[in-house]
Amino acid sequence: MEGTSLYLPIVILLMQCSPSAPVTVSSNNPKVEVREFSDATLSCNFRTETDQNPRIEWKKRGKDVSFVYFDGRFKGSFEGRATIAGATVTLHRVTQEDAGEYRCEISAPLDSVNLGETNITLKVLVPPHTPSCEIPNAAVTGSVVQLRCRDQQSIPPATYTWYKDNQLISPPRHANATYLINSHTGVLEFKAVAKEDTGRYSCQAYNGVGPAKKCEGKHMKIEDVNVAAVVAAVVVIFLVAVVCGCGGLLLHRNGFFSPGHRGRSNVNYIPPPQESQDFKHTQSFML
Ligand SMILES: *[C@@H]1O[C@H](CO)[C@@H](O)[C@H](O)[C@H]1NC(C)=O
Ligand SMILES: *[C@@H]1O[C@H](CO)[C@@H](O)[C@H](O)[C@H]1NC(C)=O
Question: pTM here?
């Protein structure tokens, strides 16, 4: 009983206030998420005190604040592809460009509190595209090998699963498994590849928006170091070195690298006698 008497003045106060409630603005859905190329409804509800004809404005906050709806018309990129009912706006065929923060502003100059606003965030979801997969053709047994999978466009970001010969590669169950999978970065890493890891690999991107997408499979072959090939390579390098060395020596003999090189005529070049005298002279001078 005492409690009700305590609240009574407040109730009376509220009742007195209610006919002169200021402009109020709200949204049924302040966080809108829609798929790209579909329609987005940005709801804005308002109630005014006495003003029967309040001004409705919509703005979008990007790098700067720009008008979406002003003076009874849609502006800029929204012209011709948006509709308004009351103060609720519907954007048709939204793209990534439309994602962002919107504000519905109602101004009722005749009201005591003459401005009200509500914010609405629009997120435009993008289904996965075919991911790009980096899979090496071949690798040597025991080496660290990374396979990468990426889909840049998905919103929200995709998670990735890997397949070998069309079988799902399950995430490793214990710490010393031979491979790691990071479903968020799309990296499949073999700590030390073995011959059994040879196979056709592919990867799938999924984000809950639209169907998952898989990249085309690619074959990866794991081989031991080919000793015969290494020996052959060493022999080839050795032969090339020998040929180059001999060639160099021959050219040197032919005077190709001497400062006064004059081609083949140098072969029979006989130094004039005074050159040796000059030499003796300088030598005695030095002593
Ligand atoms: C809406 O967002 C702006 C900033 O962008 C902020 O100043 C304002 O207080 C917000 N309004 C509401 C009703 O949350
Ligand atoms: C890791 O490998 C070792 C030897 O291969 C094994 O004894 C151990 O149980 C393994 N640990 C786990 C968690 O599986």
Answer: 0.64
